[in-house]
């Protein structure tokens, strides 16, 4: 099973650390594995670099974009997609600090969620702590100065 935590990163930090996403991963990993004062410090850092998720906006967007999709279900603020032909399932939950996605099978179901979210905001960072993966849902294009 793949488990992702999606954080909405402040634009200035997203632009500054583009290409160095491992730094974000290290911060979130350290927060996940620490306790006591270090957990408190890393939580402050995470709060500083992330924005709150507009929960209502995300709920409306998911319903509008995926509501007619076969295999899509909404249940008390959580959403699931099951793509039977591809043996792919994903579950998404929206919180003010982050969005969680759990997925199994092929990548079609989670990709449907990610496509909707990346159109909504440009700085969603997906972190998979278990498999040590990190990446932007919508890669930021680097500015080229002439």
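^ Assign residues to that structure.
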């Amino acid at each position: 099973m793949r488990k992702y935590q999606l954080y909405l990163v402040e634009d200035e930090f997203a632009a500054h650390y583009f290409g160095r996403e491992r730094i974000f991963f290290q911060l979130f990993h350290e927060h996940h594995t620490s306790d006591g004062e270090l957990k408190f410090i890393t939580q402050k850092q995470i709060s500083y670099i992330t924005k709150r998720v507009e929960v209502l906006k995300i709920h409306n967007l998911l319903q509008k974009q995926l509501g007619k999709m076969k295999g899509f279900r909404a249940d008390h603020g959580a959403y699931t997609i099951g793509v039977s032909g591809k043996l792919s399932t994903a579950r998404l939950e929206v919180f003010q600090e982050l969005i969680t996605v759990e997925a199994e099978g092929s990548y079609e179901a989670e990709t449907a969620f990610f496509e909707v979210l990346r159109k909504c905001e440009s700085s969603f960072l997906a972190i998979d702590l278990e498999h040590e993966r990190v990446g932007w849902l919508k890669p930021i294009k680097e500015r080229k100065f002439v």
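Helices lie at 11-16, 21-33, 36-49, 55-66, 108-120.
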